[in-house]
Structures are given as structure tokens and as C-alpha cells.
């Protein structure tokens, strides 16, 4: 790719320095599964004492027990810019990285920057990225405590995050049970809107609404789920709603049935999907779920696109028992958090896990 020089073009936009930004830049889940196969705990060997979550049973973050009532959570996430405003880029990258801690039911202690930046990036631009990230970490109750930088023609930024949780109150990808109700805490469509912006099809207002959604923290939603006593949750990011739903379904040996008409969308996303806009990451997502997905005959193609759309700093997806759904929704309402019932959990015939969009 012929990358323009910031020194030669002072009005350069961050998104002009990359081909793909945000979580749409993630390696596809299908390729990732192949790369990670066999890593982690070696067959025949016991897991290290205290390791509650790692590569052998993939989850949103690694978790290690350090005391009977305390587990430490570690995660890392970074990506190229998906917006031009540097402070907003830092805010979104930080919210996205910390989301994995919240998806595990934890709270953030501190974070370290992971940065790859062009040498000719103006100091004020890099500073604004860091200020946005630091402010967002502080709003989560943590602190940006350091980091590492390297030179790279394509900018990339994110965080390594350390958090803690009570080991008996962790949220895990597994744990969904037939009869559970699927609840989502943010609307879908960030990938479509960012991609549409690159094509000049997304309005300023539509993009700003997407940015507001992406930089919003999942902390309050996580606390509401933990208080409600649920066990199964994940955050919806680069693999899309169906991809992350399939991960949860496989972890619990169930079938996740999503109701297409109930999927919430950011304003403008469906129109873009109907017009044929789609990110490169969505193609990876379609391949990942293809063998395990059933789509209803009456489901519009734009809703299928929305369900595959890679999200950056998306909401939490939780499997909530009908016995506590009222309590959980009341807790979300009490925090002024929008949320949607988007489907249900059913028994899976082969116990391998599957998804449906009906």
C-alpha cells in the first residue's frame, strides 16, 4: 500500500494511513482457531495451578487465581485507526481493550499502552491519542501506567489491561443453558458505518453516534450482570454477533437462536447493508460460522449482514435465566443502559454448538 507521509500532508487523516481499522482488522476466527490449535495446556499435562481461563478453553481474557476470593485478569487489544479524530481513536481503543475485563465480570486496575506509530506523526496527534486513552481508563476506575512503542508506517494503538474479579462471580463464554434469554447491551453496525464513511456514504451524525457507542464503557452492564448472578457472557467485537454467539454456544454445547427482527442497529447501518456495503472482516465472519449457521428463509439479507458485521467496542451479550431476567433488566434500567432481548438458548442436537438467525 502506498502510504502518504504525514510530513508532506499536514491535513492527513488517520484513516488514510491504513487499509482497515478497528476490530475489522482482526485475524479471522477461522484462521485464528487453526493457528492456536494445540497451544496452551498440552494434552496429558495438568493446567498450571490457579489458571482459570487460558488458551485451552478460550475466553475473553486470561484469568489466574491468586487468593481464594481474588482472581487477576489479563488481556491485550490493539488495532489501526477507524476514525480520524486522534482523541476519539484513543478513547475507542481503550474502551475496546478494557471491555474484555468487563466481559469476564471484572474491574480494571491499570493499563499499559501498546503503540506502533509513524516516525513523522505529529507529536500533538500521538499525544491526543494517549490523552483519550488515559481519560477513558480513568473513567473506568483504573490508570494508564506505562506502555511500549515501536515505529510503524501504519499506526496502531491499544492497551494491555490488568483487572481483578471474585473467582465465584466470573462471567464466562460457557455457562449458557437451554431456556436462557439472550440480552445485548449495544446496537450493531459500527463496522458498516465506518466502512461506509470511507466510501462517503455515512453522514457526520451517523458516524458521531457510532463513535459515542464505541467509546461507551461496558463496566455498568458487567456490574448489572454480575449482580444478577448470571454466568455466561461475552463482548461482541470483531467476529460479529453470530461469531461471538457461536463461541458461547460451543462453550456451552447449546444452540443460540437470534431473532433477526429484534436486532438493534445504529442509525444508517441497515441502509448501508442494503446498499451492499460490507467490511473485509465480515467475509471472515461468514466463513467462521457457515457450517454451524441456519438462516430463516424470510430473513432479509441486510439483517444477515448486520449480524455478521464486525463490531469495535461492541456491547455485552449475555445468556440470562428467565428466573432472573426481570432483576437483570431492572439493574440495567437503573444504570440508564439500553438493552435488547435478541434471542434465546436452545438445546443442541450434536452438543457441538450452533447458531441460527430466524
CATH fold-type name of the largest domain: Phosphoribosyl-aminoimidazole Synthetase, Chain A, domain 2
Shape: globular
The CATH architecture of the largest domain can be named as Alpha-Beta Complex
Strand pairing plus helix content: what structural class? alpha+beta
| Superfamily (CATH H level) name of the largest domain | PurM-like C-terminal domain
Distance between the termini: 40 Å
> Helical proportion?
25-40%
- Strand numbers in spatial order across the main sheet: 8-11-7-12-9-13-10
Write the H/E string, N to C.
Answer: HEEEHEHEEEHHHEHEHHEHEHEE
How would you sum up the major sheet? 7 strands, mixed
* Fraction in beta strands: 15-25%
* H/I helix tally: 11
Over all CA atoms, what is the radius of gyration? 20 Å
> What are the low-pLDDT stretches, counting only 5+ consecutive residues below 50?
3-10
CATH class of the largest domain: Alpha Beta
Structural domains: how many: 2
Average pLDDT number: 91
Number of DSSP-assigned strands: 13
What does this structure look like?
The structure is a single chain. The protein has eleven helices and 13 strands. It has 358 residues and is of the alpha+beta class. It has two domains: 14-168, PurM-like, N-terminal domain (60s Ribosomal Protein L30, Chain: A); 171-357, PurM-like C-terminal domain (Phosphoribosyl-aminoimidazole Synthetase, Chain A, domain 2), CATH 3.90.650.10. A seven-stranded mixed beta sheet has the order 8-11-7-12-9-13-10, sandwiched between helices. Strands 1-2-3-6-4-5 form a six-stranded mixed beta sheet, covered by helices on one side. The radius of gyration is 20 Å and the shape is globular. The protein starts with 28 loop residues before the first helix and ends with a strand.
